[in-house]
Design a protein that fits this description.
The protein has 201 residues and is α/β, with parallel strands linked by helices. It has a single domain, classed as Trna Endonuclease, Chain: A, domain 1. The protein is 39% helix and 28% strand. It contains 5 helices and 8 strands, in the order ααββββββαββαα. Strand 5 and strand 6 form a beta hairpin. Helix 1 packs antiparallel against helix 2. The longest helix is centred in the first third of the chain and has 21 residues. The protein is globular.
């Protein structure tokens, strides 16, 4: 992967170590597990990298909650511009992933420093982001903003087990995804309407 992914990994490791040592002091008995700290910090660092490719007219929303017809979704990053509405879901995995684009779950294998092998099932982020696209598009349409929504997953600290147009692995991938469109461009009033709806969530 390109340099930005390496930077994200380093930042995640440092943040996890700092968070763990901090939570271990002061008698805090409800310390957050290191992997959760690392995951949250990884998302924040990834968001800063996403911000670096934004252009004039782009607006980035983070941690957006939307719902439609009883279904809800938490969206890590949503970029709105004249090209459309784009979801970028960030996943921080350690270990080796296996699975296909159509699998409901992927398998993650992690080998510890001691040589212990840990196997865990994780949600397929491609399936997850497709669901998020559906909910966000329906939510916006319900409120009068019928727009083209695209979704992508950005995987940190692991390689995607499958080639897919829904997986982003570099800054160039992100830039190309949100600044190129074969669809009809959005006019300024539609862009403003979408921004208003998302800013209220």
């Amino acid at each position: 992967m390109e340099f930005f992914v390496i930077g994200v990994i380093i930042a995640v490791i440092i943040a996890a170590a700092f968070g763990f040592s901090k939570s271990g002091s002061g008698g805090n008995t409800t310390a957050e597990p290191p992997h959760r700290i690392a995951g949250r910090q990884g998302e924040r660092v990834a968001t800063r990298y996403i911000e670096s490719i934004l252009r004039e007219g782009d607006t980035l929303f983070t941690n957006v909650s939307v719902s439609y017809d009883g279904r809800s979704a938490e969206l890590d990053n949503v970029i709105v511009n004249k090209y459309g509405v784009f979801i970028i879901e960030v996943k921080n995995y350690s270990g080796r992933l296996s699975g296909s684009e159509d699998d409901y779950e992927w398998t993650k294998v992690h080998i510890s420093k001691a040589g212990n092998r840990y196997v865990k099932s994780v949600k397929n982020p491609i399936k997850q982001v497709k669901r998020e696209v559906y909910i966000l598009a329906k939510f916006l349409d319900y409120h009068g903003a019928s727009v083209w929504v695209e979704g992508y997953a950005m995987i940190i600290d692991a390689a995607s087990p499958t080639e897919s147009k829904f997986i982003l692995s570099s800054l160039a991938d992100i830039d190309r995804a949100v600044h190129t469109s074969e669809k009809r461009r959005l006019n300024s009033s539609t862009v403003d309407a979408v921004k208003k709806l998302l800013s209220q969530e």
